[in-house]
Amino acid sequence: xGDLQGRKIxxxxxxxxxxxxxxxxxxQEGCLVDLAQDGQEGLRQFYAVRPDLVVLDVIMPRMDxxxxxxxxxxxxxxxxxxxxGQDCDDDIVHGLESGADDYLxxxxxxxxxxxxxxxxxxxxVQPSSSEQAPIHxxxxxxxxxxxxxxxxxGEPVKLSAKEFGMLAYLVENAGWVLSARQILxxxxxxxxxxxTDYVRxxxxxxxxxxxxxxxxxxxxxxxxxxGYRFNRAG
Length: 234
What we know:
four-stranded antiparallel β-sheet, 11 strands
């Protein structure tokens, strides 16, 4: 019990064995678990329950996990853990690019599931450590870490919670090179130290949204073999 007590978790999976196991593991920790066996039912439950986190299978009848995730992301930044038997790098990257917070392969280790759920929930509610951070502002880009506001040429840019968290960490340490592992620990939590694809995918997203030419970035720079840094003189 403890940190997961009372947290609402929605499990969407067409495999009854997986649903049962995930429900058992999470319920034992005090979670309030709701179940759905496909994407359409999952969306109905999502509207009704308003969960704190969704565990979402990829391959399902009627509406698959990708379609379900896309519709969830139109409504909310609630953490979503993709759960599937497809151990494929392309699927993992697809999941991250579609807005998933994590990707677990079946059969999963119950302890790993709990660790990932805890990490995702912790990052979702953790306040920014940048309350006193200065604003970056120039003629092109404005990053206000206090107001959690980002502007490009004066127009607001919508960032996901993870995108903003990553940008904030880089801006707070402007000029310093941060390794992928440091970024993973800060933005996703210690359980994600080896998932370097996360950083690469989210960096590409940020460049698409913030850089005038994403292929020749001026703010979000890669130091090959070391990590990434934010260049205030962009």
